[in-house]
Write a structure and sequence with these properties.
- By secondary structure, the protein is mostly helical.
- The protein is about 75% helix and about 0% strand.
- It has nine helices and no strands.
- It has helices at about 5-20, 30-35, 40-45, 50-70, 80-95, 95-110, 115-140, 150-170, 175-195.
- The protein is elongated, with a radius of gyration of 20 Å.
- The termini are far apart.
- The model has no long low-confidence stretch (mean pLDDT about 85).
Length: about 210
């Protein structure tokens, strides 16, 4: 069997084990059994439990980023682009609950270097979302020079909300990916639309 196929089997088994049992509880014996290989072969290919977990994080992160980026269709209206990106995000996290558990829970619980791997994923998604919102704002304001930095905070907030909502949706089987995406669009789009039109909220001068 080609090495790439064998490694994919090992990573599939590891994602299942880490995602369902947690990093500490998952055993290399069980992962090897799930993959249909010997434990020494897992160590030969991936060196250690730590490196195996890091490889799982990188693979699941890349898969999620690719799903979000490929879900968006350039040239459509700004709200449609954001909707498609959110749909792709929630569909992927729903279809890969073990991978999402690794990214959203397990990697963050066990410190460096695992948390750093997830930060790379998050920064890439935030950068992508910043570009989507920034392009929409530039069109609305008819200002091609409007910098992405003006909407970077909104992108951070939107991605954080999506992460939390995905965790909640995966724990509530009755919530579909479409419903989760619609919930976040209803929450966020009116505010984004106001901002793009130059309408900003300000606190009342009264205490």
């Amino acid at each position: 069997m080609p090495r790439a196929v064998r490694e994919r089997q090992m990573l599939d088994a590891a994602v299942r084990s880490f995602g369902q049992q947690g990093y500490r509880a998952a055993s290399m014996d069980e992962i090897a059994e799930l993959a249909g290989v010997s434990k020494p072969l897992v160590y030969l290919y991936l060196n250690s439990k730590e490196e195996l977990f890091s490889a799982c994080i990188r693979r699941e992160a890349r898969s999620l980023v690719d799903a979000v980026q490929s879900g968006v269709r350039p040239g459509v209206a700004a709200d449609r682009q954001l909707w498609l990106g959110l749909r792709a995000f929630f569909e992927h996290t729903a279809q890969h609950p073990d991978g999402w558990s690794i990214l959203h829970h397990q990697a963050r619980m066990h410190g460096e270097p695992f948390a750093a791997e997830v930060c790379v994923l998050r920064e890439e998604i935030v950068k992508f979302v910043t570009g989507l919102i920034g392009e929409a704002a530039r069109e609305a304001h008819r200002d091609p020079a409007l910098p992405d930095g003006d909407v970077a905070g909104l992108a951070q907030a939107l991605v954080g909300a999506a992460e939390s909502l995905a965790g909640w949706a995966n724990e509530n089987p009755g919530v579909s990916a479409k419903e989760a995406a619609a919930t976040l669009m209803n929450f966020a789009w009116s505010g984004l639309d106001n901002l793009m039109q130059g309408v900003r909220w300000a606190p009342s001068p009264r205490p």
